[in-house]
Amino acid sequence: MQKSTGGTMNIEGEPESRQINVPMFFSEFLAKKVTQNGKKIGRISDLIIIETIGCPEVTHFIITRSFGKSSLLVPWEKVLSIHKSSIEISLESLTNYEKDPGEGDIRLKKYILNKKVIDLEDHEIKVVYDLNLIVNMFNKLLIFEVDFSRLSLFRRAGLFWIVKALQGGGADDDTTSIPWIYVQLLPPAPGEEKGGFNIKTLKEKLSHMHPVDLAEIIEDMDQDQRAAVFSELDTSTASETLEEITPPIQRELVSGLTRERAVAIINEMTPGQAADILSGFPFSEVKDILEVMTAEKAKKVRSILERSEENILNYTTTKFIMLSPDAQVGEVQDDYPRLAKDKDVIMYLYIVDDSDILRGIIDIKELLQADDDANLLDIMVYDIITLTTDSTLK
Q1: DSSP-assigned beta bridge partners for residue 328
Q2: Which of 95-99, 164-168, 284-288 comes out lowest in average pLDDT?
Q3: CA dist 273 to 230, 278, 289, Å?
Q4: Mean pLDDT score of the chain
Q5: By C-alpha distance, which of 8, 13, 51, 19 is closest to 32?
Q6: pTM for the whole thing?
């Protein structure tokens, strides 16, 4: 069916036709054959897009032909109609369109499908399994959603009956589709082509994230991607984010920085935070970093690091509140002034069994807000972190 003068296109089903104002999956395009005057000339192997303010726009179809013939690079404007299993194009001469994609062209299958991206809504790293396209009122073919659903893997394999069965049975997938504007491409791996990746755009989007979310995203990246992203963060953001990252990855990231850059990031931290990070580094690296830090900051950090080898027993107390898990909240509230007298720790209650083994902890705020008839067992926190008598401050 031809494009209408009103600027819209019809998609022809088999046997009925319908208006293109509904999503079409990229995987469905890859399965379509291409015809001209009803005669097959090849199959779609990829689509080329350009970035726009809103959704990326498809500009060309890459059509692979058999018998060793050159591939065709067909503009979207040359597409006359889209059918369930094919698309019809109109070219004056096939030879004029025998071209290879340009070096800077963004190809969906090559650079985006099956690649990891940042979901800016959920602040997670996800894999692109498919993309949703739509023709708008101006006859532009746009990518408007990215599909993270694993059901799309069945669809891409042509197992449409499985997809329908799972969806019909109410099966929930663990991920969903999100608008393209909430997706950010990750840096390419070493040796890979850029493929539309824009480091400036990445920096702008990541700068609005909370350091905790940014740390989780960086930890989920590949090592080379982590290094590329972290190196582009401004000093303040890099410092705050580094504090939230796990020690092994902290060491990995700092080791990949120049000494000047590492010092600038660590100088943004408090002495305690800086010492906490440096405590996991080899002594030679710590020494090099301390030598170029400001004298006052280096002195404080060095002092904390030296004390970190001290045994924790030097900083412990036996003057704290111990209670049975069977004690009632109301009774403990009434007796709290007496229980807290002469104690060093009064903001927490330590719940122990008959052998004085720690079983849980209760914050004083939780105690005051709890029901009077409840037992301490009902409100205590079970997930606790403990240390041995051999532990050090480090």
Answers
A1: 375
A2: 164-168
A3: 18, 9, 14
A4: 82
A5: 13
A6: 0.59
Most confident of 49-53, 152-156, 236-240: 236-240
185 or 354, greater pLDDT: 354
Q: Looking at this protein, which amino acid is placed at residue 210? A: H
What backbone phi and psi angles, to 5 degrees, belong to 42? 165, -165
Helix (H, G, I), strand (E, B) or coil at 72: strand
Extract the runs of DSSP E, i.e. beta strands, from the chain.
Answer: 10-12, 17-19, 24-25, 33-36, 39-50, 57-64, 72-75, 79-83, 86-89, 106-107, 116-119, 124-127, 130-135, 141-147, 177-179, 183-185, 320-323, 345-352, 358-363
First and final C-alpha spacing in the chain: 73
Structure token digits, residue 99:
């071209």
Please give the structure tokens belonging to residue 314: 């030097």
Highest mean pLDDT among 33-37, 214-218, 278-282, 294-298: 33-37
Token representation of residue 125: 């790293």
Domains and CATH numbers, the chain: 10-113+132-144 (2.30.30.240), 199-307 (1.25.60.10), 314-379 (3.10.580.10)
pLDDT of 102 above 50: yes
